[in-house]
Amino acid sequence: MAKEYNVAIMGATGAVGEVMLSILEERKFPVKNLKLLASERSAGKKMKYNGRELTVELLTPDSFKGVDIVLASAGASISKQYVKNIIDARALIIDNSSAFRMDDDVPLVVPEINPEDCRRNKGIIANPNCTTIIALVPLKPIHDAARIKRLIVSSYQAASGAGAKGMAELEQQARDWAAGKPIKAEKFAYQLLFNVIPHIDVFYEDGYTKEEMKVVNETRKIFHEPGMRITATTVRVPVLRAHSESINIETEKKLTANEVRELLAGAPGVTVEDDFHNKKYPMPLFASGKDNCFVGRIREDFSIDNGLNIWVAGDQIRKGAALNAVQIAEIVAKEGLK
Questions:
Q1: Whether residue 298 sits in one domain with residue 159
Q2: Which of the listed residues 78, 156, 160, 334 has the most CB atoms within 10 Å of its CB?
Q3: How many folded domains does the chain comprise?
Q4: Using alpha carbons only, what angle is made at residue 132 by residues 127 and 135, rounded to the nearest 5 degrees?
Q5: Confidence check: pLDDT of 1 > 50
Q6: 192-212: per-residue pLDDT in tens?
Q7: Residue of 118, 130, 143, 293 marked active site
Q8: Which of 164-168, 291-295, 310-314, 326-330 has the weakest average pLDDT?
Q9: The CATH number of the domain where 272 resides is what?
Q10: Same domain, 124 and 137
Q11: pLDDT class for 164, splitting at 50, 70, 90?
Q12: Tens of pLDDT along 253-298?
């Protein structure tokens, strides 16, 4: 009989936590016992898993006794607060926050790209930023075939990137606009409805945002390419769910657009939607709720020798967060790393 695992979801009632729960069920992860953990505000809430009703428990330092794997999506400060309790309980934390991503001794993993890095975990495996994941799944086959020298990433990020509150704010703005009421902005710096905001996370003194530098630094770490040249501009758009990205690529070896289509057609986690004659290209409207990253608008960049342009859309909550974490847990279970 295959080994089963005692699993805890930390931040179970958040937008990502709820999807983690459903993905564990969908993918039939070998769960023995499941704990749902959240703050005082959500403790006592009922959630369904495999036809059973589970009660959300209050997150405390003692919550991890007997737990094998913790899927954490409660924010960086909470992960930092409880990580010692998790490791002391001999559990493995797969963390969806930014808390440990750039720590040298913490693997940062996208299962389609660097699953082997899970083997060197010391009790923590980090889930990358959603924008990074959605970009890198289709970039990996291109990098393997022609070695990427430079990337220019422009993101079009959904309200879901700011969690359930971000989505709720966009929906409320739409209702208020339709009713002729004043539009309020609290979660975002400005009104998101009918607007785009070129500002995600805090600004650094050089004018880049933390979100932009996550794309730069995490890509280098995941690809094991510390010198890769990358620049990014991250933008919030009035889309409920699923991020989109325009990615300009310079490679060492020449690849034609057709060669890229062929490479990506067989790539894990990728769906090619690239038929401009019939107006087929990836859009968040259709990527929402899906597991794969969708790629289209594949074309050669005629302004440089070995240049490509691609357009990517992927569900920020699924592949960009919850699904990636569960896929990491599947590697851990398959290889007996816990």
A1: yes
A2: 160
A3: 2
A4: 130
A5: no
A6: 999 999 999 999 999 999 999
A7: 130
A8: 164-168
A9: 3.30.360.10
A10: no
A11: confident
A12: 999 999 999 999 999 999 999 999 999 999 999 999 999 999 999 9
Is 118 among the catalytic positions?
no
How far apart, in whole angstroms, are the C-alpha atoms of residue 322 and residue 233?
24
Q: Is 176's pLDDT higher than 90?
A: yes
The two tokens of residue 182 are: 């004043």
Domain that holds residue 169: 132-316
> Counting beta carbons within 10 angstroms of the beta carbon of residue 62, is it exposed (0 to 12), middle (13 to 18) or buried (19 or more)?
exposed
CB 104 within 8 A of CB 220: no
Helix (H, G, I), strand (E, B) or coil at 183: coil
Contacts of 309 (CB under 8 A, 6+ apart): 246, 247, 248, 249, 297, 298, 299, 300, 301
Token couple for 56: 């959300």
User: Which pairing describes strands 243-251 and 270-272: parallel, antiparallel, or unpaired?
Assistant: unpaired
The catalytic position among 118, 143, 243, 293 is 243
Quick count: other Cβ atoms within 10 Å of Cβ 149? Answer: 18
**pLDDT digit string (tens) for 228-249?**
999 999 999 999 999 999 999 9
The amino acid at 94:
I
- For residues 73-94, one letter each, b for 16 or more C-beta atoms within 10 angstroms of the residue's C-beta and e for the rest, the string is bbbeebbeebbebbbebebbbb
Three-class DSSP category at 117? helix
Q: Do residues 122 and 259 share a domain?
A: no
- ∠ CA 116-69-58 to the nearest 5 degrees? 150
Q: What is the dihedral of CA 219, 222, 223, 227, to 10 degrees?
A: 60
pLDDT tens digits, 37-94: 999 999 999 999 999 999 999 999 999 999 999 999 999 999 999 999 999 999 999 9
Compute how many other C-beta atoms are within 10 angstroms of the C-beta atom of residue 106. Answer: 21
The reply to whether 243 belongs to the active site is yes
Structure tokens at 197: 């905001």
Nearest to 328 by CA among 130, 115, 133, 124: 115
Give the residue-averaged pLDDT of 98-112. Answer: 98
- Considering the domain architecture, whether residues 193 and 276 belong to the same structural domain is answered as yes
Tokens for 61, please give them. 């330092």
